[in-house]
Amino acid sequence: MHMDSRINVDQNLAESFKQLVLKMPIEKITIKDITDGAGVIRPTFYNHFQDKYDLLEWIVKNELLGPLFPQIKRGHLEECLVLIFTNALIMKDFCIRAAKMEGQNSFESIVRKCIWEMLFTYISARCEDRTFSHSWMTPEIVAEYYAQSLTFVVMTWIRKDMVVSSEEMATVYQYIIHRSMDEMLEEML
């Protein structure tokens, strides 16, 4: 299959899935629902994705985080933060509905995994020939720490209906990660 047609099928399935998420909980959406909306047959779905959670991960990687990769490769972390919140805002209704998912394949766990992959790639490239001063701190651990914190901030913002601007959320996250807890407590007094 030609690469462009594969991408088109992926996008059609993603659009169908996103429309369905606006109408019903993800847990109730069937593969048939998705393929009917995309105008393809069930085997076509399975040629592209393992299940609806794999499709959800594709959406997170390609639509939410995909535009960040060029920025993070250049080391533009501030722009990446704004883009995460801006892209989520573009998909606001979808994100708010998807954030209600619980369990092993939850939207939150998929977002965290994808953010971890992005951060791990960035950190590994930056630390290629170096090591951290503490042996426990590996690129995997550091990426996990920041993926957990960024996912927490993003998901909390989504669950609170995304009323704060994407720029302010990026500023808030940068503020938190650049200060110790003691510094933040001092500033609050």
Describe the fold and architecture.
- This protein has 189 residues and is mostly helical.
- It is 71% helix and 0% strand.
- It has eleven helices and no strands.
- Helix 1 packs across helix 4 and helix 6 packs across helix 10.
- It is globular, with a radius of gyration of 18 Å.
- The termini are far apart.
- The model has no long low-confidence stretch (mean pLDDT 89).
Topology overview:
Layout: H1 3-21, H2 31-38, H3 42-48, H4 52-65, H5 69-73, H6 77-90, H7 92-98, H8 107-126, H9 139-159, H10 166-177, H11 181-188
What does the average pLDDT come to? 89
The run of helices and strands is HHHHHHHHHHH
> Which word captures the global form?
globular
Supply Rg: 18 Å
Count of discrete alpha- or pi-helical segments spanning 4 or more residues: 11
DSSP E strands, number: 0
* Largest beta-sheet details: none
Strand composition percent: under 5%
Query: For the terminal residues, how far apart are their CA atoms?
Result: 62 Å
Spans of at least 5 consecutive residues whose pLDDT stays below 50 are none
Give the proportion of residues in helices.
over 70%
